[in-house]
UniProtKB/TrEMBL annotation, chain A:
Protein's name in the database: Succinate dehydrogenase subunit C
UniProt key word Metal-binding: yes
Record family assignment: Belongs to the cytochrome b560 family.
GO CC, any one term: membrane
BP term (GO), one: tricarboxylic acid cycle
Species name: Actinokineospora cianjurensis
Transmembrane portions of the chain: 29-51, 72-91, 111-131
Names of required cofactors: heme
TrEMBL record, chain B:
Topology in the lipid bilayer: Multi-pass membrane protein
Keyword Metal-binding assigned: yes
Intracellular or extracellular location(s): Cell inner membrane
PANTHER family: SUCCINATE DEHYDROGENASE HYDROPHOBIC MEMBRANE ANCHOR SUBUNIT
Family annotation (Gene3D superfamilies): Fumarate reductase/succinate dehydrogenase, transmembrane subunit
Protein's name according to its UniProt entry: Succinate dehydrogenase hydrophobic membrane anchor subunit
CC cofactor: heme
UniProt keywords, alphabetically: Cell inner membrane, Cell membrane, Electron transport, Heme, Iron, Membrane, Metal-binding, Transmembrane, Transmembrane helix, Transport, Tricarboxylic acid cycle
One GO MF term attached to the UniProt entry: electron transfer activity
Coiled coil stretches, renumbered: none
Main location (coarse class): membrane
Record-annotated membrane-spanning stretches: 21-46, 105-127
One Gene Ontology term, aspect cellular component: plasma membrane
Length: 143, 137
């Protein structure tokens, strides 16, 4: 093994200014990973969603039947996941814009990450409530 | 003593880039992303959260919305921006992770075919929507 390879292995996998890696393992990296995952998932959903909406050109009942699956408990829960994914992608996209175009953006990228995660929780709490309220009531409320 | 280098510089600089495509794509992601924040979050708020959410959606609900040019334009704009924004994102993902040129090529062909299909189908449905279409059995 060469000297340089040994030196490389001694670098801590955790990112920090002290170890010389600013990015790897940093929250900024995970925000990028989450941005990719939520983006790809949303793109695949969009594919399915345009196909199911296209059933309005077949007949009213063909469309109503497919839309009924959106109202089942499992799919309803998946919709909360979709809204959560899209909301994260939107908020983090806004953060990326601020990092790119706002003069204080790069310096404040980490506080901005905690801010968007806070906004996400504040929006998702009532959002999930209104999305799931009827499904939960019908499952456990008995009427 | 100066270091003797065989070729201190490459004889010609390679072309920096072929056109401005990647720059245009970078700008497009930001501009379309900003528009999609309004279009998509508005769509999700109306369709999934307000006034009973998904439980009130059916054919009649869609017919009511698409009787208004405002929502037709909203949905058409959302369709095109989201499909191209998402397709361009997936193109980047394929470029990053495909290891073989042939894999990369065929994944992109699949992506572009799906994009054309979705854009054509979605546009067709918005422009030819017919609220009086008969029920089938």
């Amino acid at each position: 093994m060469s000297d340089s390879a040994i030196a490389t292995e001694q670098v801590s996998p955790r990112g920090s200014r002290r170890t010389g890696t600013l990015y790897r393992g940093d929250p900024g990296m995970w925000s990028w990973v989450a941005h990719r995952i939520t983006g790809v998932l949303t793109f695949f959903f969009l594919f399915a969603h345009v196909l199911d909406t296209a059933l309005v050109r077949v007949s009213p009942n063909a469309y109503d039947e497919i839309i009924e699956t959106y109202k089942t408990p499992v799919v309803n829960l998946l919709e909360v996941g979709l809204v959560g994914a899209v909301l994260y992608h939107a908020l983090n996209g806004l953060r990326v814009l601020l990092v790119d175009f706002w003069k204080h953006g790069p310096r404040l990228q980490k506080p901005m990450l905690w801010t968007i995660l806070g906004i996400w929780v504040v929006v998702m709490a009532p959002g999930a409530y209104f999305m799931m309220e009827r499904t939960v009531r019908e499952m456990f409320g008995g009427n | 003593m100066a270091l003797a280098l065989d070729k201190p510089r490459a004889p010609r600089r390679p072309a920096a880039r072929r056109g401005n495509f990647e720059l245009v794509s970078w700008v497009f992601m930001r501009v379309s992303g900003l528009a999609l924040i309004v279009l998509v979050l508005g769509h999700l708020l109306i369709m999934n959260i307000l006034d009973g959410g998904v439980h009130r959606i059916n054919f009649a609900f869609v017919a009511g919305r698409w009787s208004s040019p405002f929502w037709q334009v909203w949905d058409l704009l959302m369709l095109w921006l989201a499909e191209i924004h998402g397709g361009n994102g997936l193109r980047t993902v394929i470029n990053d992770y495909a290891r073989k040129d042939s894999t990369r090529f065929w994944l992109k062909i699949m992506l572009y075919v799906s994009m054309v299909l979705i854009l054509f189908l979605g546009t067709y449905v918005i422009f030819t929507f017919d609220a009086t279409i008969p029920t089938t059995h």
